[in-house]
Amino acid sequence: MSQFRWLTGRGPALRAEHLERRARLAPPAPLDARPLAEQRLVVLDLETSGLDTKRDQVLSIGAVLIESGAIDLARQFECTLSCDQPLGASVLIHGLTPSSIAAGSEPAEALLAFMEFAGSSPLLAFHAAFDQRMLARALKQSLGYRLTHPFFDVAELAPLLCPQATIRRGGLDDWARHFGLQVHQRHHASADALVTAELALILFSQARRQRLDSLQALQQRLAGWRRRRRAHQLAL
Fold first, then answer.
1. Residues in domain Exonuclease (predicted)?
2. Alpha helix locations (H) across the chain?
3. DSSP secondary structure letter of residue 38
4. 194, 64 in Cβ contact below 8 A?
5. pLDDT classification of 96: cutoffs 50, 70, 90
6. What is the pLDDT of residues 14-32, one digit of tens each?
7. What domains does the chain contain, in order, with CATH numbers?
């Protein structure tokens, strides 16, 4: 294995093997009209050193795969990243100790492994905007890679598809309780990803009942829902 690092312009210094793997990463597949049950989707959750998307770092990545309308428990992703920042309160929240962070994978290796796992699939997360910004920044800093995969926010899909729940700005715990999901562990990336995936499957079932049986249809309905919400907020 070559340890030689290549300087990539203004980007990070990467080993030759990392450059080769980055070049082989699959581009995101365009959203299409295939039924939801035929989609391959990757549900992820990040644990971070804080909530500042410009300064804090990704500490761990957990992800599960939805394929053929079911969660593939045999194919999950979990990785802790090494971090050069003081952990602070994140140790108490995530249970990530300084020793586990010190023993974590180097960010470039962990992020490459995750993107290889994700492939060309769309990504789902709860409060996806935060995960998307954190992941995009980490990929740019560590790999010089621009994230263009589409993200769907389960926290948006839930009130869109289940307005009768009257849960406004609810968290993952609120929606899990609403649907009677068992949450055995929280603030752990892979466990949170699994709960989010279970919630997503329930919401996809609701979507099919509303004749929204594709990612294209969901994206279009979400766009209209966001416009109405913005107009309502401006009118207040």
1. 40-209
2. 16-24, 90-94, 98-102, 107-118, 128-143, 154-161, 172-178, 189-209, 215-235
3. G
4. yes
5. confident
6. 999 999 999 999 999 999 9
7. 38-235 (3.30.420.10)
